[in-house]
């Protein structure tokens, strides 16, 4: 985002653009390195030494010349860069609870008895809930964190299944994410559906316990 202070010499830095990794999201105790560019009045980048500052105690700048920073506490922190007397607009860093692990919050196997119905009637069948419990360090419930569910059908051709409400679910205020297997009654009934649940840290590293595996069997 450009700085708000403008230099009248268009060949000199007139704005500072800051880019934050992972859309400005980081887990507490992680370090990250922002990047920044000084721009002249034509919008071109120019050579300029940037110095970095934190405006909040939740965020600690470890190296003012590189911007390497530590997420010190859950919440949000503002990061600012300067070159000469030109300052960038403060950029907000969202500091999330550090994920610890995930486990199943209920049975990992389910048997669904499919009642006979005329084909192509649009009558669907739902499995029981497949529940994932996420944990974070410090006893914090990791709310609003993404769990990705993937369904594999056996045999692989014919039956149509989807995940309800969707294949990507955010954890609730208790840290739980729930989905169900929906069998669309427009084809043959599968023998089983294997559902994997994966969760990752903001930096993309898998969380302990990921992936989890659920098996849903269909019986006449």
Tags for this model:
mainly beta, elongated, five-stranded antiparallel sheet, Immunoglobulin-like, 48% strand, five-stranded mixed sheet
Task: Walk me through this protein's architecture.
With 220 residues, the protein is an all-beta fold. The protein folds into 2 domains: 82 residues, Immunoglobulin-like, CATH 2.60.40; 121 residues, Sandwich (Immunoglobulin-like), CATH 2.60.40. It contains no helices and 21 strands. Strands 2, 6, 9, 10 and 11 form a 5-stranded mixed beta sheet that branches. Strands 12, 14, 15, 17 and 19 form a 5-stranded antiparallel beta sheet that branches. It is elongated, with a radius of gyration of 25 Å.
Give a concise summary:
This protein is mostly beta strands and 220 residues long.
Topology (elements, then pairings):
Layout: E1 15-19, E2 25-27, E3 31-32, E4 35-39, E5 45-46, E6 51-54, E7 59-61, E8 69-71, E9 75-83, E10 86-87, E11 91-96, E12 99-104, E13 109-113, E14 125-126, E15 130-136, E16 146-154, E17 160-164, E18 168-170, E19 176-184, E20 192-198, E21 212-219
Parallel strand pairs: 2-11, 13-21
Antiparallel strand pairs: 1-4, 3-8, 4-5, 6-9, 7-8, 9-10, 9-11, 12-15, 14-19, 15-19, 16-18, 16-20, 17-19, 20-21
Q: Proportion of β residues?
A: over 45%
Q: Can you tell me the CATH topology of the largest domain? A: Immunoglobulin-like
Helix and strand sequence:
EEEEEEEEEEEEEEEEEEEEE
Mean pLDDT value: 90
* Low-pLDDT regions: 1-5
Radius of gyration over all CA atoms, rounded: 25 Å
CATH class placement of the largest domain:
Mainly Beta
Overall body shape: elongated
Tally of individual domains: 2
Annotated CATH homologous superfamily of the largest domain: Immunoglobulins
Can you tell me the CATH architecture of the largest domain? Sandwich
> What separation lies between the terminal Cα atoms?
59 Å
